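Aim 2, interim progress. The first record below pairs a target sequence with its structure tokens.
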Amino acid sequence: MPVAHLLALAPLDVWLRMLRGTLPHPRYWLRLLGIGFTSLIGTIWSLPERIIFGICWSGFKKDNERLDHPPGVLVIIGYYRSGTTHAHNLIACDPDSITPRWYQSLMGQGFSMSWAVTRFLLVPFLGSSRPQDGVGFGPLWPGEDDFALAGWGHCSTLPGRLIFPSRWDQWRKWNTLEECTDAERARWRRTLAGFAWKITRRHPDRMLVLKSPNHGAHITELVKVFGDHVRFLHVARDPNKVIESNIRMHDALSSHLLDKSLDATTLRARIVEEYLEIETATINQAQSLDEGRIAFITHENLIADPIGQLSKSFESLGIGFSDTHQDSISNYLSDLGTYQRPPHTPIDLGTPSNSEPESIEQLRSLRPTQSLAATVAIPNPAHPSPPPRTGSGILIAIGTAIAWGLLWIGLIWIIKLSFPDYRPRLDQLVWIGGSVIGLISIRAAGGGSKPLGIAAATLTLLIFISVSFPITVINWHFAQNGSTQDFLYHNGKGALHGLTAPSSIVYAILGMLTAWRHASQTGPRAPGT
């Protein structure tokens, strides 16, 4: 069945290149059709900015494979499921840094305008937590630049890892780039430099924070892109836990496949091989860095003492760790509360190969030798969030819904006056209205709740129903010379016809879901927002 695919917004030309030479089995055609639809949408709304940026970046920038960013670039490295996401979220709390957000990473070919649309459109389709581990997720949460490299530059291992596992040999070269041609490595550098440039335009004076697990094998290339401004923070975790967690991640994301999934034993062997390859390349390439350019930290210590461990790492890297950043981390962790890992369902973890124990020992030898940090209590937030004022939020939501309905009707009236032969309903406005109602209500309440979410979704539906009759009158004015009964009957019938059109129902559902998602959010806010 179709799914909110990890490369759903990658443009059609990239998907055609990925599919070149192969056609997925018919069992995947419905899923592929869904991807094609979303890809077409992403292609259309990002095309103008993609063309303009491509011309300017390639035609007017002297070295389009390099980005000089004096405020600095911090790249978080460490194999998948090693704790890099937690480190990324903590560092993204810093108000003096900037990092890609998922609405940007999932459509790397876009820019300012198309990203604004994407940020809005993704709300109904992205859950509030990742399926593999329950960690916070959503359009505004920190995202991995590797998704932009895959969806824009066609230069990532993601297709081979999570979409076409039988074609892994075609994609694995992007892990270390050693087997890539000079042109392919240039494309990788050019795509990353362009994406980083776009991310930093809004705040060019802030440190850029990037995170992709296989960047540990890209240290040499990253230095070519960012020069002396780049620093690295490596996060390591117990190899046995990393391996099991990766197998579970592949299982949780199997709905993204367009290929037969690997058996657990083969998958396990591939994970161990890739894990050792990336970690070995990390240590080898780190030797070329000057002192103070890379810091090592363990996931276990970061959990036990997040502020203390980051403070030490930042100090060794020559990066400031402000009081404001520490307060933001305290607020984030306070909102996050005690992490409750979703219960593990029994799955086949595969049979370890004969060489796996040796590989694990090698991985442990590559892991930094650090004593286990003592658990440090997180300080209370300097400015704790007050409890949500749900009643105030609902009242403001009612006022917002009424104002939105009047604005909607007024817009239809102006269009009708200007273009008498045009009879628009603009049902799409219910989707935008749901977003507006949800966002304003949660801001007014100071926090989300289920009652607020229900109220926002209900108001979105009510305003959609309420405007349908006056819109029908403005556009058609049925039985205008007839009796009041005829006037109400025929215009009411027209309004009902408009409300029950398939497209209207879809927009109404999307609007209600968007309002609910915004107004019912009770978890932590995305770090740095």
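The second target in this work package is listed in the same format:
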Amino acid sequence: MSFSTILSAVIEGLEVAFIHVEADISNGLPVFHMVGYLSSEVKEAGERVRTAIKNSGFEYPAKRTVVNLSPATMRKHGASFDLPIAAAILTALGQIEKPEKDCLIIGELSLGGSVKKVSGVLPIVMEAKEKGVRKCIVPSENVTEASLVSEMEIVGAATLQEAVEAMQNRRKRKKIQNKEITDCGNLRKTVQKETKFPDFADMKGQEFVKRAAEIAVAGGHNLLLIGPPGSGKSMTAKCIAGILPPLDLRESLEITKIYSVLGLVDEKTPLIVDRPFREVHHTATKAALIGGGTIPHPGEISLAHKGVLFLDELPEFRRDTLEVLRQPLEERYVNLSRTYGNYTFPANFMLVAAMNPCPCGCFPNANCTCTPLQIQAYQNRISRPFLDRIDLCVEASQVKYEHLSDEQKGESSKEIRKRICRVREMQRIRYKETGNLTNAMLEGDALNKYCKLGTKEKKVMEQAFSVMNLTARGYSRILKTARTIADLEESDAIKVKHLQEALGYRMDNRKYTV
């Protein structure tokens, strides 16, 4: 046989594209030619594959070899084509039998013939299952990750020889524990230990801040903490990571797919069972936040999907960097357009940000050393449209000595989390027909249906709308926050006290205006 085809795949953004690796061996000048709109790392595969075949004990006669990666209109990148190229060549040479049609192969080869780990295995295997593929040959280091997909035969190969044995059905599937995970209740115990976070019980004072954090997490709302240095803003944000509700299996796999594409999953425990908490330094670029590159990869907002994105020292970020977050905060996804196509990344995250009121952090206290011009310039680094997307804004005041010296602990994160889980379950049941998961995601008809106001409540909002100069977006976000406050009190209707508390958390710059 002088021609053969092997099924493989590649990641395009977060989407999976199937590639047919074709090899033709014929008499003629001994050349190795690869075609198919290839990037430089794919073109280099030729030398790796030829050397790996020889060093693995197979014969490679001096013949004309042409390898095509189809479809030719799609740009090919990455090193995961090494193993399928070697398999196609050996099949074309007649040294091994052609594998089944429903067999997919991915993997990188070293010169010695060993198979190296590649990224993006989980989404590839999941998509392969949807397309009817029943067997996947992957690097041994990726077996645990690939086996998260049920009803799929996963075979790991540490060398090219082992891959050939797998293609000839002489190598059995490697047994692992993760394939039995079906119950979300035991998910964390089965996969990995629970991550430790700071506890709200160790936080002194700041009861108002704790309350705002609980409301924000319960409804999935964005939160801004303003206060002087040392008032507990950063600690509050890290405590929030400990009160996030648990993931279900579907959400866990969705997050793991994103991390798999970037090669960030753990080899032994690849399944991510804790909601992400991403803390980004203020020197981050726009591409680092939303994703980018010639062939875009997900950024921090996608890595924070279903979790929290924490931006400390918010005014220190470049203004144009913060502005790129406006659309993802509203739409909960980000679209990137490049020469090779359009890419969509999920970005359903909860934003937690912290900032000082001025460069020295002491304004409006008397010991502030900043000039009015400096204070105004510092606050103007954050645009009003950006602040309009913040649901709750709370002041973290300086902690008093009597609070620090008090040995009595406050309410623990465990107790707060119980209430949050109860409220999230209420929202899940309430919105099961709309597809919304939290109050923060309400919009349109769903907002009007579930955030109805009585006569008294309408008068409160009418007065607040004019006094606070609210926008339509600000108005709807207040209703969503009030809905969450009502849920925490197990109230079916939004009452005046719920609206008043929600209005108290609305961003109002008058206190910090020079």
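Confidence is low (pLDDT under 50) at residues 174-186. This observation will shape the mutagenesis plan for the next reporting period.
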